[in-house]
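DM from R.C. (forwarded with permission)

"hey, sorry to bug you on a friday — could you get me a structure for this? deadline for the figure draft is monday and I only need the backbone to look sensible"
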Amino acid sequence: MPIPAWPSREIDLRILVAEDDPRIATTLGDALRAAGFVVEREADGEEAWFRGDTEAFDAIILDLGLPTLDGLTVLKRWRRAQRNAPVLILTARGDWRERVDGIEAGADDYLVKPFRIEELLARLRALIRRSAGFAASQVDIGDLTFDFAAMQVLRNGVAIPMPPQEYRLVAFLAHRRGRAVSQLEITEHLYAQDYERDSNAVEVLVGRVRKRLGSHVIVTRRGFGYAIGEPN
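My reply, with the result:
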């Protein structure tokens, strides 16, 4: 599975990769980070279950053949606990019964090994869009159009140049249209856990976006966080 040279970067969303094969996990991690995702990895079923049960992820890539606790059991536990992050199952076996078991347990999609990284990324992006309520890769909010496929923000059809981190912020908020997102949640999703940042990094980033797009675009909801647009 060669890692393609990506021409552009995806919004920084937080992905859990539960995969015990070091080679596959490294390939996945490198490709996902190159596409702009924040990646956390677990190689053990119990640890993967705990992370998915106690932390927020935008999507999870789950291998069925995990040690200690198999992937199907992990998935069933998450769904019983109402952990609803979209889950893409990886399996080395092509048995249709196993696929049916995975879907019935709550999986959103699956891929059989070996797979193409390009297909995995396309499926992952589609799962994240659908979980956010967007079947299409483009959404209009006010006079702005967020094109998640092209990774652009447009006003009246004209693209607005934006540095990557500013784009990731507005795309992250647009994916949660109308919902107030706390500074802590933004920090967890835009930065890796070991990334050094100032305590006011989010406030500074919001200020830069407001100067670029207009002060009305990102709304501050006192005591709750930041939001873009109204609920659907």
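R.C.: lifesaver. The chain has two domains: 14-131, 138-228.
me: no worries. The chain has eight helices and eleven strands.
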